Amino acid sequence: MNVITRPESLAIEAHDHEDFNTSNNPSFADIVDARLSRRSIFKAGFGTAGAAVLGSVALSACGGSDDPVPAPAPAPAPAPVDSSVKLGFAAVPKSVADVVTVPVGYTASIIYALGDPLTAATPDFKNDGTDTDYDNRAGDHHDGMEFFGLNAAGTARDANSSDRGLLVMNHEALTDQFLHAAGVTANPRPVAEADKEIPAHGVSIVEVRKVGGKFATDKTSAFNRRITPLTPLQLNGVARGHAMMKTKFSTTGNDGRGTINNCGTGYTPWGTFLTGEENWAGYFTRVAGDDAARGGATAKSVLSLNRYGRAQGGASRHGWETAGVADKYARWNISQSGVSADGTDDYRNELNTYGYIVEIDPYDKNQAIRKRTSLGRFAHESAVFGKPAAGKPLAVYMGDDSRGEYIYKYVSTTNWDAADANPANRVTTGDKYLDNGKLYVAKFNTDGTGQWVELSMSNATIAAATAYKFADNGDVAINSRLAADVVGATKMDRPEWSAVSPTTGEIYYALTNNSNRKLEPSGSSQMGLDAANPRSYQDSVAGGAPGSAGNINGHILRMKEGTGDAAATAFTWDVYLFGAESGADLTKVNLSALTADQDFSSPDGLWFSPKTGLCFIQTDDGAYTDVTNCMMLIGKPGTVGDGAVTTLSYTKADGSKVDVQTRVGAKPTTETLRRFLVGPKDCEITGITETPDGKTVFVNIQHPGETISKANIADPTKYVSHWPGNAGFGPGGATARPRSATIVITKNDGGLIGS
Fold first, then answer.
1. How far is CA 359 from the centre of its chain?
2. N or C: which end of the chain has fewer CB within 10 A?
3. How far is it, in rounded angstroms, from Cα 597 to Cα 103?
4. DSSP of 515-539
5. Residue 211 CA to chain centroid, in angstroms?
6. Which DSSP category does 180 fall into?
C-alpha cells in the first residue's frame, strides 16, 4: 500500500445535523438500546496487508492556452460498464497514522490543496495564515467533485478524454483558525478575516492534464475560476420570482448571490456540474425579537425559519454580519428590519434563496449559474441521475443531511432526448429538464416496499394543510421539509450522498448516523426505530464510558424502482451494508458480518464508477477514530432482495420485549468488499471522480487536523495533523499547517482502479 497520513466537527457539526424536524412522522417500532460497550463486546481487528507511503511530490504548472471558445463535439457514445471487473487489491489495514494509505501496486500523489493559485499572477501559497485573494485560490474543505473532459487542444468539451479535463469541486466549509496567522478574532469580525473566509467557500474549476504521464494543474488555463458566496446567479424553476424570494439585492426575486456549504455533486447527462447546498442556514442570524417583527410565533415566515434551523437570537457560524455595514456583510443578518411589506428593503427573505441544487457549466464562464428551485430546498448532499432512457423522464435522487430528515426524488416533465447529450447550450438544456417536473419524498414500509409521495398542491393533503398553509407550488418547493412533514414521509438517519448503480440502475443512500435514534424516544427531537432505520446501541471510544445510544455507525440503504422507470411511484428496498466494527454483536450491531478488512463507520460519500460499476464508500467518522482514521472502501454490490429478512429483538426498560424486522442485503465477502484507502489524522474522506477510462481516480481529503484552538495555533507541535506538508507537498514540511487537498490515484500497471 501507499501511505499519505478530524474532530467530529464540534459546535458546527452539532448545529449542522441538529434535529429541526418535530413532526410526528412515522417510526415503526420502539426498541431498546443495546447497552453494549465497544470495549466489552468489540474485538479490534487489524488487517495484515502491506502498505506503501506517499512520499515527496513535486508538481509544476502546465503550459497555457488562449481563451476557450466552447464548441459542440460529437455526442459521446455511452461508455460500456465492465461488470466483469473483480476486486484485485489487498485490503488496506486500519491506521491512525498521519498519512494516506492505498494498496500495494497503487500510487497516490497530491495535486491541488487549499490556497493553491488558480492564475499565474496569484502568489504561491505560504500557508502561514497571511495569504489573501481566495477568489483566485483553491478554497477550503475540498468535497464533492466531477471530471469534465477537454479536447487535446484544451478548447472545448471532449467527454471521452482521459488525459485533459476540468476538475470541478466543492469547498464546503472552513478550518478557519488556519486561515489566519493568529487564529480567528471574536466578534465583531475584522473585515480582513471575513474577506478571506467568504470566498474560501464555494466551487473551484481547475484544469488538469497529464504532463510526463502524471496529472498536474494548469495555472494558466482560461477555464480556471472560483464561484463563491458573492458570485451573481439566477434563481430558476418553480420558485423563480416568488414573493418569498424578494430581497434588497433582487427586488424581483429572480436573482441571487452565491452558493455556500457545497457538499455533494452531480454530473448531468448534458455535461454540466450540479452542486448541493448543505448546511447553509447556520451562516445567517436573526436578532432576538424578530419573531414579533414578523407577526409572532405562528407567522408563516417564522414557522419556515424555525423548521430550517434559524430560530431568533441564534448566532451565525462566522459572524460575518458584524464585519461592517457593507451589503456583503449585512446580508447575513436576515432579521426583518425594513418597513416594506414585501421584503425588498432588507434581507428577511435571503435565507429562502439558499438550500438548492445549483447548476454550473464548467466550460463556459459566460453562462449564468442557475439555482434549480424545482428540486426542493433542504440540506442537499448530492444529486444523482437515474439511468437515462430515451423517451422517458429523468429522475434525480437527493438526500437531506440532518437527523430525522428525508429522501427525495425529482422527475422531469420533459422526456429525455439523446440528442441533448451534447447540446449547443448546456445551461438552457438544464432549463428544459430541471425547471419543470415533480418533486417526491419517500415513505418506507415494514414489508420492504415504499412509496414516492408527490409534493405539490395537486396533493390534497398539502393543499389542505393548516398549520402551515401553502400558497402555491413555489411555496412547496421553498418549504419542502414542511411539505414532507405534512404527507408523513419517513424520518431517516442523515441521508447524505446518493448513488445509482450503472449496471442495475438501483439507488443507494448513505445514512451516516443518528444520535437521536432511540429505543424509547423522549422529546420531539428523538425518534424510535423502524424497519429502514432499525438500530440503536451504545458504544465507547478509547475505552471511555459508553455514550448515549443511537445509530452510531450508520448504514447504506438500497432502493429499486417498482417499474424500473424514473416515474415509478412505488419501490422496494433493503439495507446494502450496516456500518459496524468487526467484533460487534452480530445480532444487533454488525448485521452485515463485516470483517477487519471491511468494517467501517459513518458512510458519507457514495459513488459508482461509470467504467467498472464498482461502488466506492467514503467515511466521515467520529465513533471509530480511536481505531482508524477515516477511510474509503470499494464494493461490488448485488441487488435489492439478495439477502434476508432479519428480526432485531430488544428489551425495553420495563422488561417488555420489542422486535423490529428489517431487510439485510447479502453479507459481503472478501471478493465483494475491501478497504482501499485510509486518510490522515482528523480528516474526512469525501469527493471522488474518475477519468472516463477508469484508470485515474481523484479523491478529496477534507480538513485533516481540524481540531485546533486559537490558543495552540502558534505551536505546530500541538497540531493534530501536518498533512500534506509532511508528504512533501507545499510549504512547511513536517511542521506545516494541515490543508484539505485532492489526491490522484493510479494503478502502477496502468489498469482499472480497483481491479
1. 15
2. C
3. 12
4. TTB-SS--STT-B-BBTTB---B--
5. 31
6. S
> Does 720 reside within a domain?
yes
Return the percentage of the chain with pLDDT > 90, whole number. Answer: 86
The helix (H) or strand (E) run that includes residue 475 is helix 473-478
What is the structure's pLDDT at 666? 98
**Domain annotation covers residue 313:** no
Q: What is the DSSP string of 97-134?
A: SSSEEE-TTEEEEEEEETT-BSSTTSPPP--SS----G
Q: Which three cell numbers, joined as nine digits, stand for 372?
A: 434549480
- Contacts with 398 (C-beta within 8 Å, 6 or more apart), sequence order: 276, 357, 375, 376, 378, 380, 381, 382, 383, 384, 407, 408, 409, 410, 498
CB 119 within 8 A of CB 224: yes
Label residue 298 exposed, middle or buried (CB < 10 Å: 0-12, 13-18, 19+).
exposed
- In terms of C-beta density within 10 A (0-12 exposed, 13-18 middle, 19 or more buried), how is residue 554 classed? buried
In a domain, 637, yes or no: yes
pLDDT at 77: 58
| pLDDT tens sequence across 312-341 | 999 999 999 999 999 999 999 999 999 999
Q: Which three cell numbers stand for residue 373?
A: 428551485
The DSSP H or E segment spanning 40 is: helix 38-41
Which residue, among 591, 735, 620, has the nearest Cα to 687 in the 3D structure?
A: 620
Write the DSSP assignment of 260-324 as a string of letters. -SEEEEEE-TTS-EEEEE-S-GGG-B--TTHHHHTTSTTSHHHHHHHHTT--TTPPPSS-GGGS-
Residue 72 has which C-alpha cell? 459542440
Averaged confidence pLDDT in the chain: 91
The answer to whether 643 and 667 have CB atoms below 8 angstroms apart is: yes
DSSP H helix total and E strand total for the chain? 11, 35
CA dist 85 and 616 (Å) reads: 14
Alpha-carbon distance 155 to 17, whole Å? Answer: 42
Q: How far apart are CA 361 and CA 344, in angstroms?
A: 30
Q: Which domain holds residue 677?
A: 46-151+180-190+197-280+354-747
Q: Which residues pair with 147 in a beta bridge?
A: 167
Residue 284 contacts residue 15 (beta carbons within 8 Å): no
Closest by CA to 662, choosing from 495, 444, 446, 449, is: 446
What are the residue ranges in the chain where pLDDT is below 70? 1-20, 26-79
Instruction: Pick the closest to residue 513 from 665, 660, 346, 625 (CA basis).
Output: 625
Q: Encode 65-97: b = buried (16+ Cβ within 10 Å), e = exposed.
A: beebebeebeebeeeebeeebebebbbbbbbeb
Q: Grid coordinates standing for 309?
A: 434551523
Domain count, the chain: 1
Q: What are phi and psi of 152, to 5 degrees?
A: -60, -30
Q: Indicate the length of the chain as a whole number.
A: 755
Quote the CA–CA distance of 657 and 207 in Å, as a whole number: 59
